[in-house]
Amino acid sequence: MQIANGWTQQEIGRSRGGLPLEVYRPAGADTIDGLLIAGIHGEEPETLLLARRLLERIDGADTRWAILPCANPDGVVRGVRQNAAGVDLNRNFPSTSWQPDHSFTYPPGTPVRKREYRTNRSSPGESPGSEPETKALIALMEALNPALIIDLHSPLELIAPTPAANREIVQQLATAAGLTVQPDIGSPTPGALRDWCSDRGIAAITYEVEHAPLPALCERHLPGLAMLLTPFRSASR
Ligand SMILES: [Zn+2]
């Protein structure tokens, strides 16, 4: 389906709860350079809004990136991290690191999340890749074969690239937003999308924004992301 602003919207599958998973592709692009994913954790809806702002600010004619604004609609509509089956999708990928046991969802001691209110244990699903969202994401990544994947999260305020990620691009993103680059987020994330990408030598960046109001997040993070998504437009200016 063609939409305004040069983007094409396509349903790539359904969530466990039956909600559509939608990817936006630049209408005129035969090949895709990158894939930006947001909202894989439903309790991080600010990432979805940042992805949406990129779709609004960038014309599809100016980019060769695809954007999946909401990888976990079940969690977003419920305001929780997991999908409708209670699975943390970012622990469900069939990576070598996948574990059947529950794992920490974020580094213990992260001050912005209080254990009294929220669990710090994540269900990885019944088996690696058991969830429809995980299957759809893998199929999308394999179909697009992007040179770089960016996975938006909050609130750790850092950039964590896989070894295959281009260092110059990583540094440009970090500099644009004033973020630190860390090889990992501080605790194991078995079954994470990032681990799955690392296993396959795929360049991916876990991009964690901070807890902040949306205008502040847009001001800090959108310029660098927009520059990455529109290299031709930037170069011609
Ligand atoms: Zn997250």
Keywords:
Aminopeptidase; single chain; 6-stranded mixed beta sheet; 237 residues; globular; two-stranded antiparallel sheet; alpha/beta; binds zinc ion
Give structural notes.
The protein has 237 residues and is α/β, with parallel strands linked by helices. The protein has a single domain, classed as Zn peptidases (Aminopeptidase, 3-Layer(aba) Sandwich). Helices cover 30% and strands 19% of the residues. The strands form three sheets. It has a six-stranded mixed sheet, sandwiched between helices. Strands 1-2 form a two-stranded antiparallel ribbon. Strands 5-6 form a two-stranded antiparallel ribbon. α1 packs across α6 and α4 packs antiparallel against α6. The chain is globular. The two termini are 31 Å apart. The model has no long low-confidence stretch (mean pLDDT 91). The chain binds zinc ion. The site of zinc ion (ZN) has 3 residues, from loops.
Strand order of the largest sheet: 4-3-7-10-8-9
Stated plainly, the CATH topology is called Aminopeptidase
Work out the number of β strands: 10
Structural class estimated from helices and strands = alpha/beta
Fraction of residues in helix: 25-40%
The geometry reads as: globular
Given this structure, which CATH class is correct?
Answer: Alpha Beta
Bound molecules: zinc ion
Number of domains: 1
Mean pLDDT: 91
Annotated CATH homologous superfamily: Zn peptidases
